[in-house]
Task: inverse folding
């Protein structure tokens, strides 16, 4: 009898332990999504997509990035590590490396090879440069590597960084439209991905073309279709619906799909295939699927945040997410999965659009900063002491400064004085000032959290609000200004209360919050702040 009771107690313990986690966690990053898009297009969304996540889940209305630069690779790394570039080391999409004198791409890794012949450069990638653990890494250890972790995106960095160091797979899309992976993850591509690639599913979108999803008067939240703030799609097409994608495809290949909403649909097809073929969320060991939708970023850069094209992209993404949620309902079960949705950064307005509405902002010509720095150096020192200017960082040639018998601190000060005279420069900080930050200076805090003492520059610049680099049409991002830092965060599903919060929160709280929900260790670089609203007992 005692044996039976003991057996029952054990069986119950195992059972309840297995039920302490959802069957599947789905992390969704929408590249370049401004929080505003949840509100602005709200009348035109379905009830099955964004609104389902908001109405039946928890909405954070004031989620923010707390470092610079606000780019894709640092964004994805920060969401999943719960810390900032100063700790996880992903300080840009690419960055200048002093020891080699060259730029390095965030996920380049020459020690691994592609698994798909013909994609040697695109496939030599891994999370090697990501210094801290991700929530997905901690999750793998917590399940004793029995759960599955898969990351996927059109962009390599959007797939690789979220999936972490212990991922089963990360898949990203080549210029020719194939999803690939590297020898970091396995010896050969899974058969189901090879099969998916052979189907060339993107062609159905190319053949169909891109026209407005809804009647044109639905788009009254956006400016006229043909406006001076939009870039072209392909080489010749004016920025006007409907787009003949077959024609552009013939000129410039499959790449065009990325700059349409259908890049997201193409990825969603792969995500659903993965759930089916890898049996994600089927057994009692939790699996983790990290999906990053990139087309929102390509469309945003090209057409800008006020375009009908971006509105149409979000109306379509709403339906893509709706179908995806219903797929999860059917495959994993309504109460068995946990979803979070956020963005890797937001984006600025087009400067010319603001000028035309009488806000006197300035477009800084591309290379303006590098050119003027080089000129200042030649005029002052008779030699160019600047090695590189990128990601708002100035790298000085320390060897040459020493060789010339110059004092590095004085040289830095002279460059700082010069930069501060430029109308578009708000602040300049030296490495010493950055590393000695006390937390009192608003702008310095952003730089401090994005600064790697070994990899970053000698000086870092903050541009004033209203100054954008080299943007004629479309837009860009990267600054500490709220238009770049304010993003949505939605939690939905397993154990998520219905609610909303307007408290100021930081992007680095997402991963530790997931740690608490899943009852696992914090990622190793996080400051362990959690979104307490999700745990408050009613
Ligand atoms: Zn991005
Ligand atoms: Zn247009
Ligand atoms: Zn971007």
Result:
């Amino acid at each position: 009898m005692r044996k039976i009771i003991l057996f029952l107690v054990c069986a119950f313990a195992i059972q309840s332990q297995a039920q302490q986690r959802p069957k599947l966690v789905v992390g969704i990053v929408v590249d370049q999504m401004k929080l505003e898009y949840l509100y602005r297009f709200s009348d035109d969304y379905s009830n099955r997509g964004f609104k389902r996540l908001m109405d039946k889940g928890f909405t954070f209305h004031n989620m923010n990035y707390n470092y610079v630069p606000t780019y894709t690779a640092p964004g994805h790394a920060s969401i999943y590590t719960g810390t900032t570039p100063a700790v996880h080391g992903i300080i840009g999409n690419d960055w200048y490396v002093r020891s080699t004198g060259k730029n390095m791409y965030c996920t380049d890794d020459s020690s691994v090879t592609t698994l798909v012949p013909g994609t040697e450069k695109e496939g030599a990638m891994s999370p090697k440069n990501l210094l801290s653990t991700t929530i997905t890494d901690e999750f793998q250890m917590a399940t004793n590597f029995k759960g599955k972790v898969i990351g996927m995106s059109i962009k390599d960095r959007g797939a690789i960084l979220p999936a972490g160091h212990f991922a089963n797979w990360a898949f990203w899309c080549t210029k020719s439209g194939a999803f690939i992976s590297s020898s970091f993850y396995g010896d050969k591509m899974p058969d189901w991905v090879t099969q998916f690639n052979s189907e060339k599913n993107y062609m159905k979108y190319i053949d169909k073309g891109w026209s407005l999803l809804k009647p044109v008067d639905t788009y009254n939240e956006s400016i006229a279709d043909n406006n001076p703030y939009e870039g072209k799609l392909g080489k010749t097409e004016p920025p006007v619906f409907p787009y003949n994608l077959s024609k552009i495809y013939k000129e410039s290949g499959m790449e065009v799909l990325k700059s349409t909403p259908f890049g997201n649909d193409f990825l969603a097809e792969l995500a659903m295939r993965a759930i089916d073929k890898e049996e994600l969320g089927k057994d009692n060991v939790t699996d983790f699927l990290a999906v990053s939708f990139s087309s929102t970023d390509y469309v945003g850069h090209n057409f800008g945040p006020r375009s009908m094209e971006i509105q149409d992209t979000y109306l379509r993404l709403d339906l893509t997410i709706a179908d995806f949620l219903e797929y999860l309902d059917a495959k994993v079960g309504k109460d068995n999965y946990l979803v979070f949705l956020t963005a890797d950064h937001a984006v600025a307005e087009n400067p010319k659009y603001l000028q035309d509405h009488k806000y006197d902002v300035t477009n800084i010509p591309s290379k303006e900063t590098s050119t003027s720095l080089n000129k200042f150096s030649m005029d002052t020192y008779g030699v160019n002491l600047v090695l590189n200017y990128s990601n708002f960082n100035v790298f000085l040639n320390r060897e040459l400064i020493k060789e010339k018998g110059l004092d590095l601190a004085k040289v830095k000060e002279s460059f700082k004085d010069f930069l501060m005279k430029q109308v578009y420069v708000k602040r300049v900080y030296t490495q010493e000032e950055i590393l000695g930050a006390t937390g009192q200076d608003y702008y310095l805090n952003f730089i401090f959290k994005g600064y790697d003492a070994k990899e970053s520059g000698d000086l870092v610049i903050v541009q004033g609000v209203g100054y954008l680099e080299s943007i004629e049409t479309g837009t860009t991002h990267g600054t500490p200004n709220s238009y770049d830092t304010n993003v949505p965060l939605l939690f939905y599903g397993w154990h998520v209360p219905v609610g909303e919060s307007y408290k100021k929160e930081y992007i680095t709280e997402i991963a530790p919050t997931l740690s608490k929900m899943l009852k696992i260790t914090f990622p190793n670089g996080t400051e362990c702040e959690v979104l307490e609203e999700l745990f408050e007992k009613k």
Summary: The chain is about 35% helix and 15% strand.
